[in-house]
């Protein structure tokens, strides 16, 4: 009894190992089928006499080589990532027939005869090599239930695509979050600014000024000219400041990437001095170099040491 059970298990095991992978039918029409690629599987392709079947591989796949065990009985053509398969009649040439009459006389036969595709004689294998994968098929005649189309799916490839899509989505989310952080409106900490406007320089004078403990903000009515912004240090020397501009209603706000005691605004011969009277009176608990405490500015230098 134990021996019988062991044999039964072994037989069942071998039946699983050597079973063909039969593509699964679509829920809409059984002639449209789908198969999951496995390099170690043999896929059964059911064809019918008088009908063509097509195998669709991956979109970026091109067929390189086709080999079958019975090429005379199958018409197989490829185009890009599609393979078209059709059983065809096999012609028996005159030399193969050796026809004789009942009295032993040789019969002259000038025409060829044909054997039509049938399940017994047309079963064979098909090997396909593409630029990405190898495929092994078994071709059979199934006149009643042929496959019109077989489409492959590739789980490993799909995982890679999903992984890349997730990475791209995450990168986009990080960029959007970073943009939101950098565009976030900070609460003004200091409005104590005064401006000295030189003659004929009113159109470069800011309408308001404040700082948030990190950056200085100079607001200009949208019709005004945006000047260049310079730091005016204790040695009365000027240095150009890094800035960017953002919109705030009808105002163009020049965001100066620094807190300065004295700022000079220049445009041609026009000059305006802006003085931060509240400089250093209300410092942040933790120093920052960007508008957001979640974003750090990093200065990158090239091989020459240039920023």
UniProtKB/TrEMBL annotation:
Official protein name in the record: P-type conjugative transfer protein VirB9
UniProt entry keywords in alphabetical sequence = Signal
Where does the signal sequence lie? none
Q: Which Pfam families match?
A: CagX (PF03524)
Q: What domain of life does the UniProt record list for this protein's source?
A: Bacteria
Q: Give the family, as the similarity comment puts it.
A: Belongs to the TrbG/VirB9 family.
Write down the species: Campylobacter magnus
Taxonomic placement:
Bacteria, Pseudomonadati, Campylobacterota, Epsilonproteobacteria, Campylobacterales
Cited CDD domains: VirB9_CagX_TrbG
């Amino acid at each position: 009894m134990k021996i019988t059970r062991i044999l039964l298990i072994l037989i069942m095991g071998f039946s699983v190992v050597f079973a063909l992978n039969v593509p699964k039918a679509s829920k809409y029409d059984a002639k449209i089928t789908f198969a999951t690629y496995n390099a170690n599987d043999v896929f059964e392709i059911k064809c019918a006499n008088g009908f063509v079947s097509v195998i669709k591989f991956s979109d970026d796949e091109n067929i390189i080589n086709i080999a079958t065990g019975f090429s005379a009985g199958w018409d197989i053509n490829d185009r890009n990532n599609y393979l078209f398969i059709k059983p065809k009649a096999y012609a028996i040439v005159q030399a193969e027939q050796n026809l004789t009459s009942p009295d032993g006389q040789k019969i002259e036969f000038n025409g060829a005869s044909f054997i039509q595709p049938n399940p017994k004689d047309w079963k064979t294998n098909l090997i396909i090599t593409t630029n990405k994968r190898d495929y092994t098929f078994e071709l059979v005649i199934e006149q009643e239930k042929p496959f019109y189309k077989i489409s492959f799916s590739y789980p490993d490839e799909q995982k890679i695509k999903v992984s890349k899509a997730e990475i791209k989505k995450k990168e986009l989310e990080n960029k959007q979050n970073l943009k939101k952080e950098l565009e976030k409106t900070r609460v003004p900490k200091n409005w104590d600014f005064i401006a000295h406007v030189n003659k004929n320089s009113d159109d470069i004078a800011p309408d308001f000024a404040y700082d948030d403990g990190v950056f200085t903000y100079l607001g200009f009515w949208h019709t005004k000219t945006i000047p260049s912004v310079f730091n005016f240090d204790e040695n009365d020397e000027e240095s150009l400041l890094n800035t960017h501009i953002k919109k705030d209603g009808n105002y163009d706000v020049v965001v100066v990437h620094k807190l300065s005691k004295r700022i000079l605004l220049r445009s041609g011969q026009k000059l305006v001095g802006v003085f931060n009277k509240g400089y250093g009176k209300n410092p942040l608990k933790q120093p920052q170099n960007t508008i957001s405490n979640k974003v750090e500015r990093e200065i990158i230098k090239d091989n020459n040491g240039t920023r």
